[in-house]
Amino acid sequence: xxxxxxxxxxxxxxxxxxxxxxxxxxxxxxxxxxxxxxxxxxxxxxxxxxxxxxxxxxxxxxxxxxxxxxxxxxxxxxxxxxxxxxxxxxxxxxxxxxxxxxxxxxxxxxxxxxxxxxxxxxxxxxxxxxxxxxxxxxxxxxxxxxxxxxxxxxxxxxxxxxxxxxxxxxxxxxxxxxxxxxxxxxxxxxxxxxxxxxxxxxxxxxxxxxxxxxxxxxxxxxxxxxxxxxxxxxxxxxxxxxxxxxxxxxxxxxxxxxxxxxxxxxxxxx
Length: 270
Ligand SMILES: C[S@@+](CC[C@H](N)C(=O)[O-])C[C@H]1O[C@@H](n2cnc3c(N)ncnc32)[C@H](O)[C@@H]1O
Description:
By secondary structure, the chain is of the alpha/beta class. 35% of the residues lie in helices and 21% in strands. It folds into 2 domains: 3-61, lambda repressor-like DNA-binding domains (434 Repressor (Amino-terminal Domain)), CATH 1.10.260.40; 67-266, Vaccinia Virus protein VP39 (Rossmann fold). S-adenosylmethionine (SAM) binds at residues 68, 72, 83, 88, 110-112, 115, 131-133, 136, 157-159, 173-175, 178.
């Protein structure tokens, strides 16, 4: 989509008229109309404000797609499952702490090829899962079909996605380093707001450590978190797990290490 189409779509989704948007930006409604018709473009300095008002990112506004995506698209083009099909160990933690004795809604953010989403769906959860790669989502759908289960797979960008329904569990592994620091508070706040009381957030983030060298095949456009930063967004939640782990990795064929902050936190009603 071009800039004008993105502005028009997002504006309408938020129920704003061109005049509403123009007033918030201190420009004329004719200016907004010209942007939407692609006759003119918003000034560069307006882009961050416009992105915030439209609940999106500057990248999404200008139609920028990170090169990392094509890397993942390529990795997922094979018949094999790039990440395997063994579920993440935190899926078992979810089952232990929130067993699906009643219908529980789970959201898997950046689900890759869907191994964790499908595992949870097979075990009785109502799972929605999104990623930015078409190939990953397609393989997720195939895996669900093969396993005789259903996952609501959809395409979205973690930078732009703001839930419209509430979840019992929000899970994400190896993805939040694609959220630029300036967007983290807003993204996490929105995920927290859309978590039911007693709900869980099970997440991990790559963190910076001066003594842990960058991996040779490091993701482009990634923003490693500060050590402990993730936990600061959850000061009013109950922590079941807040750990920092350094582990060996051999991706790209060169042995190296990663450091991750790992969290299981529960939203407790006051
Ligand atoms: C390290 S993989 C993890 C995949 C999966 N969570 C797993 O553990 O198997 C990172 C995933 O994030 C996805 N991704 C990258 N940027 C994204 C974005 N902006 N929004 C949503 N997903 C994104 C990639 O396509 C990829 O599937």
